[in-house]
Amino acid sequence: MVTFYTHDGKRFSATDLSQIDTLPSLNVITWVDLLQPTSDEILEVKRRFNVDLPSKNEREEIEISSRYWEDSRTITINSYFFVSFFFVDNTKSHYNESVSFVLQENILFTVREKELQTFDNIRRILTAHPKELFSGYDIFMQIFDIRIDQDADLLEYAARESDEIRKQLLWDSGGQSVDTLRKISTLQEFTLKVRQSVFDKRRIVTALAKSSKISPPIRTELSIMIKDLNSLVEFITINGNTLDNLQNLFLAQTNIEQNKIIKLFTVANVVLMPPTLIASIYGMNFHFIPELGWSMGYPFSLVLMAVAGAVPLIYFRKKGWL
């Protein structure tokens, strides 16, 4: 699907590919959004605007040179947009979706395979504040600004989840569970994906700020955006260290709980060994056992076993092992 956004100085209007010939001129177009475009739609956009759009394989390249490049007419950017459909306590996946941006003659071309919340937000902004966005560069800056704010919200969410896990580990006796470890591991992966998205945007914004095609006002906005991204990078580093510490704390507490269980079984074995030895002696089938014909032999053996079991317990308590 291809959507053309036109600006008449007062408001934005959306037009699809079938109605493009009704426009007075292609110069009124500010943004061309290609969502899951067919090969015919891509060819038609290329023909009408004489623009080179990245293929799906080119959008997914990870090399830095494939994420940003420019020539005399265009600036081409492939950027990661983090997608998540879950909260930490379930098993749905999250990933980075590649989106292509092409800036050519004040027109922004976007190519993507998924419907993204960022683009829903920018469409609402185009309706609410049309006079503040005059060119494709303005729309691009607004999209990146929205995306950076969303990444910040995601990192704040991860930080809140980390605090909840820390409280659970420190104060909840049932905190040492497989679910807790799964939450920590999921949060680590979550943070790494957001980190990849933020680092990618910082590289792009830094490169874009050096472009001669950028006007001074936009260059100023880019410098502010770089500062915001740097603060997010620092936040990611802190939160990543926090998650590593939580994982170590979880494993340490798990070891403590296991040691307690092992100690309990060890004490039980030591306490039961003397009574078991006494019972084994009196259970022998020898005819001449002194207590065999004694009327108090049975109570005597029971008392002897109780005393033999109590002595290790008293000794352990005096040593402070219990």
Q: What number is the mean pLDDT?
A: 78
Find the CATH topology of the largest domain.
Beta Polymerase, domain 2
Listing every helix as H and every strand as E from the N terminus to the C terminus, the arrangement reads: EEEHHHEEEEHHHHH
As a percent range, the share of strand residues is 15-25%
Low-confidence stretches: none
Number of helices: 8
Keywords:
alpha+beta, Methane Monooxygenase Hydroxylase, Chain G, domain 1, Beta Polymerase, domain 2, 7 strands, 8 helices, 2 domains, 322 residues, seven-stranded mixed β-sheet
Question: What is shown here, in short?
Answer:
59% of the residues lie in helices and 15% in strands.
What report would you give on this structure?
By secondary structure, the chain is α+β, with helices and mostly antiparallel strands. The protein has two domains: 2-256, Beta Polymerase, domain 2; 262-319, Magnesium transport protein CorA, transmembrane region (Methane Monooxygenase Hydroxylase, Chain G, domain 1, Up-down Bundle). The chain is built from eight helices and seven strands, in the order βββαααββββααααα. The chain has helices spanning 39-49, 56-59, 64-67, 117-128, 136-171, 178-209, 216-282, 297-319, and strands at residues 2-7, 12-16, 29-35, 68-70, 74-84, 94-104, 107-112. A seven-stranded mixed sheet has the order 2-1-3-7-6-5-4. Helix 5 packs parallel to helix 7 and helix 7 (216-282) packs antiparallel against helix 8. The chain is rod-shaped.
